[in-house]
Amino acid sequence: MKRVAVLGMPNTGKSTLFNRLTGAGAHVGNWPGVTVDLLAAKILLGDAMVEVVDLPGFYNLHGFSEDEQVVRRFLETQPVNLLLVVLNSSQLDRQLALPLQLKDLGIPMLIVLNMIDESGRLGVRIDLEKLEAALGGPVLTMSAKFGRGLEKVKSELSQQLLLHPKLKSVDMAAFDQDQRIELELDALVSQSVTSPIYLPPSATDKLDRVMLHPWLGLPIFFLMMFMLFQAIYGLGTPLQDGMGWLLDHIKTDAVVPLTAHWPAALKSLVLEGVFDGLGTVLTFLPIIAVFFMLMAIVEDSGYLARAAFLTDALMSRLGLDGRAFVMQLMGFGCNVPAIMGTRIMRSSGLRALTMLIIPFSLCSARLQVIVFIVAATFSPVAAPVALFSLYLTSFVMAFLTAFLFRKRYHSHEPLLLELPPYRLPTWRFLGIESWRAVKQFLAGAGGFIIIGVMLVWFMTHFPFDAVPAGPATLAGRLANLMTPVFSPLGIDALLSIALIFGFVAKEIVVGALAVIYSVGPDRLSDVLTARLDWVQAYSFLLFTLIYTPCLSTVAAIKQESKSWRLALLATAWPLMLAWLTSFTFYQVARALA
Amino acid sequence: MTTMTLNQLHPNATGVIEAIHAGQDLRRRLCGLGLRLGIRVRVIRQSPMNGPLQIRIGHTDLILRRIDAANIEVSPA
């Protein structure tokens, strides 16, 4: 099959062009020797099927950033018919360096000058013929965002593929000629591109004067984050509840009658193991879809880079950057999409560190548990204080973790971000982005989550003649065994069984407690009031807040980082930190009382 | 002519890049973003609390940290 590689620098609208060409049909492809997922799609051009591969944005073929290595590795190992090179037409003064380098690879090129609408507004004039002569390939202009010039690009693509029917490997000998390319670039730019020297202050400049204002910028940032948060979870949570309601109905109306006459153990496996596992996976889908849609708006609009500018002063001291902070804040709704959202960061060290701190964000599932227990064990006056202190703890733990691991997982790349002009997002493709994220979550994390839920089900139900979640089950025996570990925290064996359940999903901790104390959920609150004093309760809350993020978060970390080590660290480290925090609190509080 | 480093330029001041003290790797990255010798660069604004700089080269706006900007020598223009 014929193959076309799409290349370009970041912020050239390369992905928009890729989406225009391929629609929703793109899939994540694996390539031998290439460590990251690349999107690829098979499309019909003329009368031939062509595979189009979207390579990560990069600045330089010689560079050593991770994306640059991916591009080089791909070109070294995969023969292609044609390179589709996308350039931002208002930044040709520097971007023309890329096709000049690529020319030496000896592979036919089709060059697309994108965002021609923007450069036209800026008054940039381009001599296409001179460019074609210098670059040795056809040069077309287009606006991928509005679809202008798309048909011409498509027909030129099929034309070029007819002219170059053979797959070619690159000539890697032609590297390392930077000096020459700089001279060529200057000559080519002065010949073929003219742009006005004095730019009138643009709308972006005016907007930035407010958005990046020395002391208005941060309050506006927090307001924007608050609104984004409300939008994501205000839209996502009802959808999630709807999905939960639907699943409940399927369970009681279809699965329960179907399994009514099955042996008890098998029935329980199907209902509380398999079905609940599947349910856990499915309830995340709406929130992931909404999250990626709204995050794409923030990214496309150009605000995300500005958030980095505003918060970098703090985050750089922790080995992170501003984008990590945005994801940490989004984690307060749900950790899973926030973990997946770290994709916007290209350095794997930075991503890993961000994935380690997101699980400390007090997500809405943990909030349910915490509010319930706080209400049962604290006076109405003390309750808000307790809740606030837990939010504070959430930030302290995240920053402490970042600070401790900043050397181990640091970014090898300096913060060098483009601040693109403010743009309206490409609404058309928001659906595609979120559909892809949902598909990847299902494929990458779904199986892991279902197996985990079944494992916890087994621990809390085996042996099958014992009372579920009772002391005779595996979980009960484990809790018993762990008594020496948990009693210094004021957490008794019954409570620690609930913590085992909490590993599946934090929101089931309250339900689990009701089962464990064998009372209805309505009476649970009284039982807790009677059995726990505030010191014990707060110690339990601290542990619940900090310990191992839920199974789905671990699955997301594993899926995104492709590293068992990081997933294991993200499980073990918070567990340790939770124990130390609860231990310190409990012992000090008891000593003082 | 006196040279200074990019982080010493005040907002709205323009300089011409005279030297870049960085490894081969970083030089190439900077070059890809348009930061090359002899190029005019303007500082747009500085983020408070010693945060990063916003600079403009041609039609490209970039943010970079002051610590990295200290490795770029410019002559005021």
Cα radius of gyration of chain B in angstroms: 11 Å
- Specify the overall morphology of chain A: elongated
CATH topology of chain B: SH3 type barrels
CATH C-level name of the largest domain in chain A? Alpha Beta
In the sheet with the most strands of chain B, the strands line up as 1-6-2-3-4-5
Briefly note the structural class of the backbone of chain A: alpha/beta
- Provide the structure class of chain B: alpha+beta
The averaged pLDDT of chain B comes out at: 90
What does this 3D model show about the protein?
The complex is a heterodimer of chains A (593) and B (77). Chain A has 593 residues and is of the alpha/beta class. Chain A folds into three domains: 2-194, P-loop containing nucleotide triphosphate hydrolases (Rossmann fold, 3-Layer(aba) Sandwich); 218-362 and 393-412 and 434-442, no CATH class; 444-592, no CATH class. Helix content of chain A is 62%, strand content 8%. The termini of chain A are far apart. Chain B has one domain (4-76): Ferrous iron transport protein A (FeoA) (SH3 type barrels). Chain B has helices at 24-32, 66-69; strands spanning 4-5, 14-20, 40-46, 53-57, 60-64, 72-76. The longest helix of chain B is centred in the middle third of the chain and has 9 residues, at 24-32. The mean pLDDT of chain B is 90. Chains A and B meet through helix 12 and strand 10 of A and helix 1 and strand 5 of B. Strand 10 (416-418) of chain A pairs antiparallel with strand 5 (60-64) of chain B, so a sheet runs across the interface.
